[in-house]
Every structure is written in structure tokens, then in C-alpha cells.
Amino acid sequence: MKVLGHVAFLLLLGGIWCQNNRNAKASGRSTKKSAGSQGGDAGQTPSGVELTGSTGSTGSNRGTGGTGAAAEAGREAAGGARDDMRLHFLKNTQVTCNDGTAAGFYLKEFRGSRRWLLFLEGGWCCHSKETCDSRYQNIPRLMSSSGWPQTRRGSGILSPQAEENPHWHNANIVFLPYCSSDVWSGTGLAPTPPSRPRQGRDKERDRTANATEYTFMGSLIIREVIKDLIPKGIKQAKVVMLSGTSAGGTGVLLNIDRVAAQLEQLGAEAQVRGLVDSGWFLESKQQRSPNCPETVSCSPEDAIKIGLKLWSGVVPDRCRQLYKRGEEWQCFFGHKLYSTLTSPVFVVQWLFDEEQLRVENIYMGGQSLSEEQWQYIQNLGGEIKGSLRDVMGVFAPSCLSHTLITKSNWMNFQVKGTALPRALHCWDRSLEATRNNRTPAKGCPFHLMDACQSPQCNPTCPALVDKATQQELTLLQMLVAMGLDLQRLGLDPQRDADSLASMVSNGG
């Protein structure tokens, strides 16, 4: 009876939705398929989730979604379905994805738990009609909910399995898909008419896109998700962890205090905490053209400067007060924003983040690398370490990679003998002790940065992969493959002689 009741309720929602004019216009986009890439991890599978449910048009999502009691029972019988996160669309239909389709979230409830983990997906942003049109054409899932599946399965810190996620598996887990393209900062509507119509099969998509404006409501989506979680028990939460990777990690920094204030206004007594993974960026050192309508010619600073106006973007009040009008973009950088936050934040950051390198047009495993670029890489680790010095909770391995907390093997990476789940648990215990006026336990570290200075000097680093051959390489092998003279750089090939010999014998 309970399942049938849910089905009836969903059918009612579907009927209401079908009368919503904006979303009805957008439903014509349901045939789009994801392809290509933009902005680093933007073109990848959604962070930390496996797509497990059926997809369909937005109309079916808001109605039955192609599921009923029989389909539900079939998935349960197949095993594992009860561990999936299930799709919920926002009750407030005025808060939407970029294309006007319904925004929403995925939820895996753990009955009786007073701990909540909210996760913001990453995927860079768009900041002009050209970049937004390109993003909409190539990666529609980051701008529309029309193809979202009914269920998703989490990995890493989003996993409900104790073996993979020892300290957070028994929390209520909420995944917020990124469909606002605004680094989770937008609060409104901005007109961005598509560029000139394309030919052939793209013509219909462009015609449909002409019928609507893009909306940028990332910050509002977070607010509405919190509201919709009230009947699920978030007001009774003891701890609420707002987490995210890449642009989602930056979104945590931008929204953590706002979420804390919202929950306090609702009467909740939860301690709100932030977990930022690979969202702690430094400003670009490259000189760029001041006229940068296209992604490839824009620095992150310029993209955010332009984007903030387009998105009607907001930054935390205490940070905004530090900068004059027009300089609010500086609050998107953690090392400038962190000291103004009142909520505790833990930062997970590879010291040689691949997305930070891409900002400088450095692609490890690509075709070439100059000596100047290698020097930038060597200096980067020290600069990021310096920017993290005053952060309370840190896990910063000396590795070349991007994102960590949603990797299924996230327990394998260590800094000074401590794995990330252990460091987060120690941070958790320390916050609880401080909150209860107790002395934090000794021998439980949560400020961990590698002492070694060079990339990949941590033995637990993820393997490097040649982009062309998909072959795993050591750092020295990769530098040679990218055209660098190791002796000229002062590197000793004998440190890795066996691997180098193997590469040469294989024609590398």
C-alpha cells in the first residue's frame, strides 16, 4: 500500500508538471545525448555515481518516470536497489536547471540516522552565450534534467557500503546533480540567446533553445533541496556535511555558511561542516586577452568575472565586504575566502591538481611539455601547500590527479601513513570534542600535507596514464615521452632505470 501511495503521488505530480509552461517547452530536449568534454571533468560520468535507473523525458521524470510498483519490485529482487539513491524533483518548480527543466536531487535514506551528507557535483561552468551553447550541445546533462536516470549508486564517501565508506555509509546521502553551470552561485535568470543556427540534426535543438532563456540557479537549488529535506528529517540532524568535488568543491565554500544559516532559521541544531575536494584553485599565471568570449581563451578569473553578471551570482557576505564592487570574483578562490567562513571546512587537495595544470595549458600525458611548464609544475606543490597552511583540516598528497572523495579506492591514498577516511574521522572527533568542551584525542591527525616536494613522490599516488596509449607510466617515463631531457633538468634517470629501459624496449 505504501508503494502504491507513492506511485499515486508521483502521478499527481506528473499531472501538475505537465501544466507548467516553462518545463513543457523544455521537454522537447529529452532526446539529447551527452558527448564531448568541456572544462576538465565536465564531460565525465557524474562524480561518484553509477547510473543505474531508466532515463526518459523530463515529463516522465516528473510523473511515473517509467517506473511503477512492478518495476520497483523487479529492481529490489535484482539486488542492490535498496542501496541506490533515488531521484526527487524540487517542489518549487520555479527553481530549475539551465534550460528550464526541473532541478532535483538523489536521496539514499538511512532510517534513524541524524547524520546527513549532501554532495555537490562538479563540472566547471559556462559564462557567455557561446560557452553556454557549446556546453548545451555537447554536455546537456550539465544543463538539463531531461536525461537523468531514476536512480544512482554512490561510490567513495557516497557509498552505503561499510567496507568502502567506513564512517559515512550509515548517513543519509544526498547527491545534487549539477545543471546550473554557475559554480553553484547563481540566483536568477539571464538572457543568453543561442548563437547562429546549426545545420542538419542540430537545427531542431537550436530552434527549441531559441524558445527559452538559460537560468542560473545553483545557489537557489541548494536552498530548495534543504527545504525539501525537512519532511525527511534534516531538521533533526546532528551533523550536516556539505561536500563537493571540483566546481562542486568551490560551491561548498560559496554556500556553506548560507546553508548553516538556513538550517538555524529552520530551528535545526545541526553542526554544518564543509568538505571541499579539488575545489581549492590558485589564480592563473598566464597573461590572457581581456576579450575572452570563448572558454579556451579565458582564465578562470575572467570566466568568473563575466559569469557572475550572467548568473546573478552571489558570494558569502563576509568575503564580499572585503572587496570593492566588481572584485567579488576573488571570493571563488579558497585561499581568499576561507578565513571569512564561520563553518568548519576540511580541504582535500592534490598538490599537483590536473585541473590547475590545465588552466596553464599543461596536460600531463599529452604530446609535449616545455621546461618552463615543468618548472611551473615543480613550484605548484609548494604554492598550494602555502595556501593551505592555516586550514584546520587538510589532506594534501603530492600527486598528479583530480578529485578523490568519490573514487571507489579512496581508502588507498595516504599522507604520512594516514588514509583520508581516517583523517576525516579524526577531524569529526576533534569537532565533537571542541563542541562539548573536551580535549581532542591525541594521535589522531587531520592536518596532513606531504613533506616531499616533487610530483608523484607519495608511493600511494594514482598511476599516471599516457593519454594516447592508455599505458601506465612513471613520472620520469612520462617526462621523457613528452620530450624533456632528464639530464638537462637535473633529474637522475638511474632512479628509474628499469622502467625507462622497459619503455625504450617497447618502442616508447
Please state the average pLDDT score: 80
Our estimate of the beta-strand percent is 5-15%
**How many helical stretches?**
16
Percent helix: 25-40%
Number of beta-strand segments: 19
Report the biggest beta sheet as strand number plus sense, adding barrel if it closes: 11 strands, mixed
> In which order are the strands of the major sheet placed?
1-5-2-3-6-4-9-10-11-13-17
Which structural category do the helix and sheet elements fall into? Answer: alpha/beta
Distance between the termini: 64 Å
Radius of gyration: 23 Å
pLDDT < 50 stretches: 1-40, 51-80, 192-212, 497-508
Shape: globular
What is the topological layout?
Layout: H1 2-18, H2 21-26, E1 49-51, H3 58-62, H4 69-78, E2 85-89, E3 104-108, E4 115-120, H5 129-138, E5 151-154, E6 172-176, E7 188-190, H6 203-209, E8 214-216, H7 218-228, E9 239-245, H8 247-265, E10 271-277, H9 300-311, H10 317-320, H11 334-337, E11 345-348, E12 352-353, H12 354-359, H13 371-387, E13 393-396, E14 400-401, E15 414-415, E16 418-419, H14 420-435, E17 447-449, E18 464-465, E19 472-473, H15 475-481, H16 497-505
Helix pairs in contact: 7-8
